Hints:
Elements: H1 3-37, H2 40-56, H3 63-76, H4 80-107, H5 125-141, H6 148-152, H7 156-180, H8 184-209, H9 223-247, H10 250-257, H11 260-297, H12 300-336, H13 345-370, H14 380-399, H15 401-415, H16 419-429, H17 434-462, H18 468-490, H19 494-514
Helix pairs in contact: 1-7, 1-11, 2-5, 2-10, 2-11, 3-4, 3-9, 4-5, 5-8, 7-8, 9-14, 10-11, 10-14, 11-12, 11-13, 12-13, 12-17, 12-18, 12-19, 13-15, 13-16, 14-15, 17-18
Amino acid sequence: MSNSRLENSIKNMFSGVAAKVILLLLNFVVRTVFIRTLGNDYLGVNGLYSNILGMLSLAELGFGTAMVYNMYRPLAEKNDKKLAALLQLYRKVYIAIGSVVLAVGLALVPFLDSLIKDQPDVEHLTLYYVMYLGNSVLSYWFWGYRCSILTADQKEYIRTNIRAGLSALKAVAQIVVLVCLHNFTVYLIIQLGTTLLENVIAARKAEKMYTAFRVEEVEELTSDERKQIAKDVKSLAVTRVGHVALHSTDSIIISSLIGVAWVGLLSNYQLIVETITGVLCLFTGAITSSLGNYFAEKSRDEGATLFRRVEFVNFWMYGLCSIALIVLLDPFICLWLGADYCLDFPVTAVIVLNFFVQGYMNVLWTFRSAMGLFSQGWYRSLIVAAINLVLSLLLGSRWGVFGVLIATFIANAAARIWFDPLIIHKYGFGCSVKGYYLSCMSRVVQVVCIMLTILAIRPLILRDEITVVNFVILVCVTAVIAIVSFYILNFKRDEFGYMKDTGWRVIRKLRSRHV
């Protein structure tokens, strides 16, 4: 990768990490105040409505991903007329998507009661739902499309910085409202205002940076370009439907089958897991645009080598974090909120399992997107979604929350975990995938062995009571054993050498910028 691309990737990653750390701390404070002032029932409603809106987001059908991919070339060629044409198309489609989300969302209002088993003692449920819906629609209607050019040009850190600053202000305002007023309505109004303000500021920033927004004569998209965009969107639409059905239905099913209070308990775990996922996704997200240019310039063999290296780094980031989560998550929740908010260990284990699988799939999708492999195996997402829905209902009725969550893993294992690597190697690199499968299986065994070793030690450290002191000791023991084991088992690998050398290059570059 070129120096400018590397520098932008570093900016995207480090600004994102800093923002995520800030938001993590703020979210914990807000969540703690939320639970203390409003209770678990409101927390469950918050989780349920967020997932319903996640379902409605499938109206976007992957259009944004296709548009960002099609912006790579005109940005590289500085073709403002072509960029302007793409942005105009993007604007029209996003206005239409927002309208569809609003219409479908309002049509669901009469059916909300059927999604909540054991109605909680919460007034104005319909009003709160409409406010969540409005927050989603604002993202489509008010200039959200303009920020796509920042993503395509590897300047996502600009929006990340804006989001971090506004999120800090939002958190402070919401804490004040919760403590002083105990009012969920004002809490949501602040959320709505922040979403609108973020879109406006980021859109204005993008407009100032790119002359494409000021082009008077727009170059029309050719018939072939429109057909290609339509083809990509068609393939991505199926993937999008499958993704939403896989990841945004759990809370809805849990609420309707088991109770909305369980959604609140689960959301505390998901807050931690999703925050860590967001930080780790910055690694792949920061290099996505660079990969698009890389595969246009390099041979298949060079691409395959880069994939193995990036995938190795990603695998071990999620592996180490999975080890930490399964060991530390329950004790942390107990310290943070109390034993009443802890889930059974099998539920925690499957939460971590899904976290690991999703992280593994994330880098595969990043490479598929960079290589434009949208249409290959398009039907697979529908199969995954169907398996997940059927098994969630069956296993959820039998095993509760654990059954719903394990259904997600089974669906992924049946049609995704093995399939995406096959697509990348067959259509992207033109080589066999067998070696990759064997390498992954050996690393999974390593992760499991390290995990079981630390879990065996955990009772000796925590003993009969979880305190801040023995929790800190457990964190240190977990980190030392996991990192040292990882080093011993992998220091001779080419991928490990690449990871180490790249890390030192980044550190030296950052040091040189501050000298």
